């Protein structure tokens, strides 16, 4: 099996699962090099996962052997690192979000098109067994025509546990930009592209007091909305109500539900790869748990990279695509723009529904 050579930039918290899966789970990827502005982190990862080359970011981008750059840096440098990778002639896959601004997202897609390179972006949880099972049930008509749904991510923020929680309350943070990508990517994967958003936002707590140990007692000034509510109208006519909030102390709301003319689907947590999936048919008396139809039910982060590697070698369109991530980026902004302007926001970006994974895959393969 030909292995596509990957260069990972950013060896922080999330990188471990990428190193693990791209070196051990997927048969078509090889982590050829890694880099981090804190060289020690790249060295540590290289030792742990047997990576031969620890390079600077610049060296990694200029190394002709690297085919895909996997950008696992922090959100505010996603754009710069992705742009540099595309300019160096690499395909690039980036952790969420694609970029901070709509202009940056569009620029990356345009640059990739000009250079004939692929852009890919997390989350790739929609390729997991849980969400792929939901997709199959919808595609096969089990809930009939989708009518609408709900998507809820509500909690009280992260200053109670995170050692450096300030960024959650600054531009690029907030509940929508932090967790929205999982919910919105799942919804677009299940229902297709969105059309219009009506959003309302608020800041319920203008200041937050850190109660985690390192900065206990320090006060954070909240600079972005922390309670974001609204409705998305999808091109297929489905209306999904969504709340993302850091202002709520407790809730029994489900993560995602999809309602159809023939039944209701309870969708698992879109921040995971597994189930459970429940279905209630129009004439059924109760929800029944549905056995998952697809593999990749455990933490398979990096499957989007393996899928991109398949396309590098064989052609085709990568599923966790830049187009999808850019649509999701616009959706996240749409809630805020709609709220600020007190008007509906019609999306400008388009996005094809990503192709489902086939049934009967062997672990390690994406085709
Ligand atoms: N940690 C998680 O559980 C988690 C989960 C899902 C997604 N993510 C996403 O993954 C990304 C990384 O998150 P993280 O938690 O691993 O952050 P982190 O801060 O732990 O790691 C980021 C790493 O990138 C390096 N870095 C920063 N700027 C760089 C640059 N210009 N060039 C090279 N290296 C640079 C940092 O030194 C650091 O080692 C973020 O986009 C985040 O949204 C994180």
TrEMBL record:
Q: State the superkingdom.
A: Bacteria
Pfam families hit by this protein: GFO_IDH_MocA, GFO_IDH_MocA_C3
Q: What is this protein called?
A: Oxidoreductase
Family annotation (Gene3D superfamilies): Dihydrodipicolinate Reductase, domain 2 (3.30.360.10), NAD(P)-binding Rossmann-like Domain (3.40.50.720)
State the organism of origin: Anaerocolumna cellulosilytica
Is Phosphoprotein one of the keywords UniProt gives this record? no
- Where is each Gfo/Idh/MocA-like oxidoreductase N-terminal domain found? 5-120
Q: Keywords on this record?
A: Oxidoreductase
